[in-house]
Amino acid sequence: MEREEREKDRQFELRKKEIDAEKEVRIRQLELEAGVGVPLAPNLGRFEVSKNIAVVPPFREAEVDSYFSAFERVATALHWPQEVWSILLQCKLSGKAQEVVASLSLEESGDYEIVKATVLRAYELVPEAYRQRFRNHKKPQTRTFVEFARDIETLFDRWCAASKVKTFAEIRELVLLEDFKNHLPDRIVVHLNEQKVPTLSRAAVLADEYALTHKIMFTAPRQEARPPTMPTTASHASRVSLGETRSAQETRECFYCHRPGHLIAVCPVLRNKKAPSPVRSKSINLIHSMSQTNSNNTNEGGEKPDQVYAPFVSGGNVSLTGEPVGQMSVTILRDTGAAQSLVLADSLPWSHGSYCGSNVLLQGLGATPMSVPLHWVWLKSKLVSGRFRVGVVPTLPVEGVTFLLGNDIAGGHVTPMLEVVDTPTLEPTDDILVQAYPHVFPACVLTRAQSRRLGDEVDLSDSILERVNVEPAQS
Questions:
Q1: For 61-73, b where at least 16 C-beta lie within 10 A, e where not — what string?
Q2: pLDDT tens digits, 145-186
Q3: What is the DSSP letter of 315?
Q4: What kind and span of H or E run contains 199?
Q5: Which of 4, 90, 147, 268 could form an SS bridge with 143, CB 3.0 to 4.6 Å?
Q6: Signed CA dihedral, 294, 296, 302, 307: sign only
Q7: What is the CA radius of gyration of the chain?
Q8: Chain centroid to CA 95: how far?
Q9: Which of 227, 233, 193 is nearest to 210 (CA)?
Q10: Contact at 8 Å (CB) between 248 and 215?
Q11: 79 dihedral zone (left: phi>0; alpha: psi -120 to 50; beta)
Q12: 8 Å CB contact between 63 and 97
């Protein structure tokens, strides 16, 4: 049942196309009889479109270049009148080809050559396109060398057919013209392609005319006429011509930077602007001098950082989940010269879940950048807290430091912010500092408690309360 339905649908579509074709032929006949267009050929009225339209090859947009060859072979074999070629062709066109043909006038749509050229131009199948296909064709891995040879032969034939060359002399001109264009600037090649020059001599003349027309030179103002002096030697003449050429070049002005002495083609400012910017690596500008005794030692945990870093060293906690469970204590060094924060590899149990999927290039004093993986880490410190991307490295240049806090996380924060509380707290170390540096902690009034704390009070209770035994005087 389904096969019969498909057959009925196919017959219906075929009959519909036949009716449309006959209708279009009839309309064309009426227009030609009314005096529009060219006179109707005698055998056009006897040609039955409905019997021949089924033989027209179906149009495929992927095989446009080979479709017209197949159509012409069928039309020639069946002795179709050339006047009906465009009508039969338009009955099978679809997609972009149908759109471009619909934009043609009535007279142009009746000419097969015009319709063919319009469709090929719409799919960019011009001689230049065939030439590029032939020159850029590469052998696919799935095709044999015999098939590859057949492909390049077909491409070359299509290039020659599109260029309308058949004899050896025409092919010679085609190859010479191609080689000539390969040595010309792009703008001149575009000009020659637009002019569709067929021969090498004609192309050379047009190239010279274009170069002379578009050359812009600024010559120096004329000077007073001087009596000509003949050069004494050939070397003197060459020096004079070279000097004149240099002086003419020095008077030119660049269109881009407006400086004399060069043209825009060799402008250094424009070249530097067009040059691709290299991939910049994040810098780690920490400078640390190493003595000969510890130059071979790595950064081992448990050691304290050098006192020179003491104002910028603080404590903190890191974890992979942000939960209190699993937090690890780290010694943080704030490095204002670092663009990327780093952490030691043995600080946390890293995994694929914490990996960000990318690496960062680090460069310090050494010229060779180092690729470092990025991981997500939860950081809790006095400066900043949150989830950040940090680089994981095996060692750090400062002993006792496990986390290098760079500008990418801390930003402009260098030291923790001061905290103001309602009730001041007295640390045990405050008394020691007051005793060691009394001029730093001045007091307007010295209380008994402060004096007693400083140890200036003298206990005289024993001397005052002691009983004095006085013997009576004898008379």
A1: eeebbebbeebbe
A2: 998 898 888 888 878 877 888 889 888 998 999 899 999 988
A3: E
A4: none
A5: 147
A6: positive
A7: 47
A8: 34
A9: 193
A10: no
A11: left
A12: no
